[in-house]
Specification:
This protein is mainly alpha-helical. The chain has a single domain, classed as Tetracycline Repressor, domain 2, CATH 1.10.357.10. Helices cover 71% and strands 0% of the residues. It is built from nine helices and no strands.
Length: 190
């Protein structure tokens, strides 16, 4: 009798392992074979769900965005507009080990964009979603004519904090990231 396989769980396991490989060793190390090895199975364990790396990257993007929506909604439940914005901004920072690994993987991919066009949709989709989140959270708090500029300022500032935290982990612990965020919110009267 064939063994039951939870296909949704298997897809989650594959995308999680892929993100770990990206974070730890970069895009060059992310092959279907290395992914199968990391999962402790044969390559068909992966190819049954994703036949190419491009498909895998697309799946990672989709999975990450689905998880973001659910996670963020849970964190913000019942919060007022200002608190929702603070929750979002803190959520966008690598304040714990898991978030730091994820950001390491994202930044590792940046260096590969010119060599592998299959990465572009990941960055385009992620940037659009992060800007959408910022726009939705800022809209009730700022004047409409300032919304685009505020989204840009927060996006750039958060990316800078993330990059500092990834490049200089010991110098940018959660406390420092949060202190800069608090100062930013005060400076923007948010």
């Amino acid at each position: 009798m064939p063994r039951y396989v939870d296909h949704e769980q298997r897809r989650r396991d594959i995308t999680a392992a892929a993100m770990r490989i990206l974070a730890e060793r970069g895009l060059g190390a992310l092959t279907l074979k290395s992914l199968a090895k990391a999962l402790g199975g044969s390559i068909t364990l992966v190819t049954h769900f994703y036949s190419t790396r491009a498909e895998l990257l697309q799946a990672i993007t989709g999975r990450v965005l689905e998880e973001y929506d659910v996670e963020l909604a849970g964190l913000e439940e019942g919060a007022d507009d200002s608190t929702r914005l603070r929750i979002l901004l803190e959520w966008m920072l690598p304040l714990d080990e898991e978030a730091w690994i994820s950001e390491c993987g994202r930044i590792a991919l940046l260096g590969q964009r010119e060599d592998d066009p299959s990465i572009d949709p990941f960055f385009d989709t992620m940037d659009a979603r992060m800007r959408e989140y910022l726009r939705e959270h800022l809209a009730p708090l700022v004047e409409a004519d300032q919304l685009g500029e505020m989204v840009d300022m927060l996006r750039v500032t958060l990316n800078g904090i993330v990059l500092c935290a990834v490049e200089h982990r010991d110098e940018w612990p959660a406390e420092r990231q949060l202190a800069v965020l608090r100062r930013l919110l005060t400076a923007f009267s948010l």
